[in-house]
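3.2 Worked example (two chains)
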Amino acid sequence: MKNSKIQWCDDTENPVMGCDGCELWPTVGQVLAALISLVLRFTKLSRNEVRAVIAPIINEYETTTELWHDRELILIDLQQEFPDMPASDWERTIEKQFKCYAGTLHLARGGRPDDWSEPVSPGHAAIFERPVNYPGRMAKTAKRPDLRGEVRADKPWLNGLPRLVFVSDMGDALSEGIDFDYLKDEIIDVATGPDGSRHLWLWLTKRPKRMAEFAEWLRETHGVPWPDNLVAMTSVTNRTTRSRIDQLRKVPARFRGLSVEPLVESVDLDLTHVDWLIVGGESGKYSREFDIEWARSLKEQCSEANVAFFVKQLGANAVEDGFPVELRDSHGGDWNEWPVDLRDREFPSGFGRCPHKTTQVA
């Protein structure tokens, strides 16, 4: 997407749409468990008894995409089995499981196809959990002009940098079924080509182990090193996912970055050989709390490790000292509403200039 609203890039591009799962996208089993837990709050039945009623309704589905599009029928069945349960509780419990914005956009834009083989909206995966390749997108984006020297009036913190392209905001190109040859053709060859080499590509994955395997395959099979203008990035959302950083360090990239978003708890990170850290709170109807002290802690950790620190947004449910932070922006992305000490949007020096810190005083 050209002129992306995402604060840390100019554009986004997706050679692959869809993702085969992460902590932000529920499995059918996780939806089932959430519904069982809901019923147990209102009944004296045992867990096994409740499961025996709900499981046949939910386990009919192979993917949560299919489950989502059938949720009205599911709610009718559940209401018949447990007539004393408010329908809104069932619906809310299902909706709260879907945290991934890429997945929810697929649900909204892709629609429900008749046979699940083709999306209603072209360009999306019919079923989010079954990624689809879209060749040629990267090459088209690569032809866009270099932005070095151009003024980005809406994103002044990007001024002086080449065009920054976020790769894989609507899926994960390193999902298990994606062929390495395809990734070489669509990402590596484009990023190093005459058009793509003018830009900086920010490749984000929740599968850094597979990214490291891909890098080794490139070197051993084709003698191709990791491009300097391809930033290797992974996501950390909680303490459990910190292990991804160890896998990211195995990618022989010139630059490595972390997207610590949506951050749902305080984290202490080993930032050795990490160049950039982006932090943000969760947005959406059922967003979890984001304590801005978590961002302050990460800022201090980045300062100690000499890592560029970038605050993307405070999210829809930011708190400070236990109280809600009043924000008009629904994503908490307007830094004019933030505490002054968190108005930091830095980049690694090698991105095109010395580390840049823009601090706007209210």
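3.2.1 Second chain
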Amino acid sequence: MKNLLAVLLALALLVGFTPAFAAWQVVSQKILPGSGHPESVAYDAQGLNLYMSNFGEAFKPTLKDGKGFISKIDLKGKVVEAKFLPGPGDKLNKPKGLWVDKGRLWAADIDSVWCFDLKSKKGRRLALPQAKFANDVAVADGKLYVSDTSGGRVYLVQPADFLEAEPKVRVMISPTGFHPNGLWPAPGGGVIMAAKKDLGGPGGLYQARDVGQMTQIRPDLGRLDGVAMLKDGSYLYTDWAGHGLFLLSGGGEPVKLAGGFKGPADFALVPQGKGYLVVVPDLVTGEVHLIEIADK
């Protein structure tokens, strides 16, 4: 479905059509108590489940303690299996960004990225050369993208499904002073990125279409974490400085859709009727926010 959305948006741009942006609003918001430090949630469109990465009890993002895990939860937020991954013999440290597609789950973990089979729980760790803080992942068209926030780069791994294959790993982009976090597949190829130009300054949205090519979408938005693109081309993103979930449509100003966060992290986007269920973990409190949005 993500691939179809990308194609439709790309065709619209080619024929000069400007998408009409919907007036998205929050229909309902539920906050569920949690435990540990959840960093990312991914939606499994085939299994109709959610998967959530968790640091465990230690809020130390680069600590290699082998105590991180990934939970399986249903669409109402109920925990199906608290420590679904890793499987026997594997260890996760501080798993962050997740992506699920066609029975596979990918997870970023400090200096590496994992690929798991959701049925067998078999996993394979792939070291990322010189990675310092592997933070988020996105998969599209057989390509895996991984952001390294501290290292200031985005990796491109092909094939994305490296569980049984030998992948090629290269740096897609690494501009001076660039620090990417959240990733999302971009229309026409490449990725949308939530990133900072320097670690101490505000972050914005950018796009990388190919190796070495990056363009700016909107700078100076805040301390951004997760990002996603809606069906009308609007952007959703979480912002630690603004303590919430924000919407950016066209050339307008950002709109805060939901607040009450201390550490709004990487979220899942679940299509739901004419709207979406947005599942946002709070890395600081451990809570999970279930936010339903719809067009007015």
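3.3 Remarks
The radius of gyration is 17 Å.
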